[in-house]
Amino acid sequence: MASPDKERVMGSYRKVLTVRTSAEGDIVDLTEELNSTVRASKFMDGLACVFICHSTAALFTIENEEGLRADMREGLQRLFPKEIDYEHHRRWGDGNGHSHIRSAFLGTSLTVPFHEGVPQLGTWQQVVLMELDNRGRERKIIIQIIGE
User: What Rg, from alpha-carbon coordinates, does the chain have?
Assistant: First the structure.
């Protein structure tokens, strides 16, 4: 709540990132980018939306440690195997039907509240991008902030 002697003004701030992934299954930690973007916005309270402009990548939170990164890759393979003959493969011949399905289930955006200029993530929670396509790619990520 705004203090009586200081009026708070709502506004927005936007940053576009470009991230190069190296291979399918690559997980890139975006937490520091989110933190620095919230600081750069100069807003104290609000919401930060992180969005990836691609249908074969995903954004989510995870404890970003090697065991969970491996578990995530293996879990996706069990749920959405690469070897299945997807209709997308038949139509386009690009072998990445599993990538689109995985992205749709994991999601391409997330919203993180921030307070006193700090994203309110849990102690072991980091914001990550996961490459789901069958090769590394250049990825565009938008961080859009609404705050005061």
Answer: 18
**Can you give the residue ranges of every domain in the chain?**
11-147
What class, spelled out in words, does domain 11-147 have in CATH? mainly beta
Q: Which of 4-18, 22-36, 67-81, 97-111 has the lowest mean pLDDT?
A: 4-18
Pick from 34, 37, 29: nearest CA to 13: 37
- Confidence label for 99 from pLDDT (cuts 50, 70 and 90): very high
Of 11, 107, 100, the closest CA to residue 51 belongs to: 107
